[in-house]
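Lecture notes, part 5. Sequence design as translation. It can be helpful to think of inverse folding as translation between two languages: the language of shapes and the language of residues. The source text, in structure tokens, appears below.
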């Protein structure tokens, strides 16, 4: 029996059952109703409305410009297309860094104004109290360690994290702290596979990898990247399962040609 038929609706409890049974968690991003519906029908376990929408949807260079209102707008569209997958929403930059109460309030906004199943926050020990307060209110929280794009200006590059002993120790410590604060899972981004394996084995909650090796409890990719919609972004951790940018361009070219040559619409396509 496939995992797709094992669980009618994915929840935080499902995540734990999957880790305990060794069943890998498959995740992708979505920012609109149609994509979310197709991804859900295909059987992914959770859908992230990532602040990556700032890059792939809005055309920004970083994730920093996206706002709470924009995240909520996209989440409302996504959840209408999802029946099975768990939907998790990134709390965007400066929606939780200011104070614990600010993060708590914004997490509450997402849960009240959308049909999301939880929120995701970047960081370790420094956000532990925020995670604790949000989870104590009954809101599921996913952590995010390793490369944290909202801190790009602090780090100065998108290089992998966990390359030296100090960074490895910090990752292991932060993972335990986030787990103890109540998080139900942790995304590990751009972490060496051996380090991600250590982190995964050190916590009882699932880890979701992106550029972090096969030993994580699950994997996530940005959907436009894995479908080949993005043309100028080719990190080594992205496997392209399609080349939709080329297909779209060719289709639009053919349509334009047909219109100009009066080959579209045909008599059957007219009223």
């Amino acid at each position: 029996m496939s995992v797709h038929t094992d669980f009618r609706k994915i929840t935080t409890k499902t995540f734990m059952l999957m880790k305990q049974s060794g069943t890998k968690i498959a995740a992708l991003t979505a920012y609109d109703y149609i994509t979310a519906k197709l991804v859900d029908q295909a059987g992914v376990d959770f859908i992230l409305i990532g602040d990556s929408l700032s890059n792939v949807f809005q055309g920004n260079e970083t994730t920093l410009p996206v706002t709470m209102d924009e995240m909520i707008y996209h989440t409302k569209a996504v959840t209408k297309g999802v029946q099975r997958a768990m939907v998790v929403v990134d709390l965007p930059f400066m929606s939780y860094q200011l104070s614990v109460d600010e993060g708590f309030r914004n997490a509450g906004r997402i849960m009240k104004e959308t049909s999301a199943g939880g929120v995701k926050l970047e960081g370790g020990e420094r956000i532990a109290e925020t995670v604790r307060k949000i989870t104590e209110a009954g809101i599921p929280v996913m952590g995010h360690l390793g490369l944290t794009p909202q801190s790009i200006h602090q780090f100065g590059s998108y290089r992998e994290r966990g390359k030296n002993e100090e960074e490895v120790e910090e990752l292991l410590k932060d993972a335990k702290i986030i787990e103890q604060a109540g998080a139900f899972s942790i995304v590990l981004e751009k972490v060496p596979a051996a380090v991600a394996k250590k982190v995964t084995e050190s916590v009882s909650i699932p880890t979701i990898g992106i550029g972090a090796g096969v030993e994580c409890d699950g994997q996530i990719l940005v959907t436009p990247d894995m479908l080949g919609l993005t043309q100028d972004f080719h990190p080594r951790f992205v496997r392209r399962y399609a080349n939709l940018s080329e297909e779209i361009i060719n289709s639009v070219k053919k349509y334009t040609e047909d219109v100009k040559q009066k080959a579209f619409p045909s008599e059957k396509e007219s009223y």
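The translated text above is only one of many valid answers, since several sequences can fold into similar shapes. Residues 243-271 form one domain.
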